[in-house]
Input
Amino acid sequence: MRTVKHRMACLFPVLLGWGCIALTGCSPRVSSSDAPRVAVLKFADHPALDHIEEVFVREFSIAQPGIDVKTYCAQGEMLMAHQIAQALQNARPDLIAAIATPSAQACANLIKDVPIIFLAVSDPVAAGIVAHPDAPEGNVTGVSDAMPIRPQLEMIQRLQPECRQLGVLFNPSEANSQAGMARLRPLCAEYGFSLREQAVHSIAEVELAAREVVSQVDAMYMILDNTVASAFPAVLQACQSAEIPLYTADAAFVEHGADASCSVDYTRLAAEGAQMAHQLLSGTPVRLLPVRDAGQPIERIRQRRP
Output
């Protein structure tokens, strides 16, 4: 397997070996390799999405040896996700894997003639990515990561019985965050939590917002939000300074300092996506591959040093 990683500081480079991006004014050229060409578009660099990318590429390369993989990261920028999707439309790979809702939206809205696998999309119907998850009608299917909110709130009650006020940061521009908050609000009321919400619209806003919210709550709760996840160190620092717990909807952050998580099994999610991608490249029509979920949630609690 050949893997090339692209991390764009501004726009993005030529799609090496597949053709030139639209903005360069070059015409696409045919690759000299007969290996299936797979593009992976990740919305942001943070532990959760990094883990999905790593497992997907590894498992896909095992199922389909010899694939030519190129990975791209939109650096958490919606505009860049759309620009990369435009480049991929011109490059015409054999398959696209889109990690996180904004990446999947960018690809699905623009590219109609290349199979697309989405990974870690909380609500693909609400995001406008698929209309009928049980029988996808276009070129897009994938694996959903709807948050297991009830188990998460029950875990918080068990670990911190005195907790009454939860702080949540979210970007209202992210469809996945909108879906998560719509489910979280009524359940917090049901479980007796008062929710302190704070909207953020960019990674740069997260640090100040976190410092403000932690002084008003008993614990912070990170939903599946790529803007906030990309600024995880700032959220963690604010919680540690205020001496309150940080709970997350993704277990990957526990390894980086969060206190506990009850989350989708993202290793399984990525492996399921790799299996579906292999089926697509082997000729299975998209309509025969219903949208899947990642199964039962997993709980992870950080082991504190004595």
Summary: Residues 47-63 form the longest helix (17 residues). The mean pLDDT is 89. The CA atoms of residues 27 and 161 lie 62 Å apart. The domain at 149-263 is CATH 3.40.50.2300 (Rossmann fold).
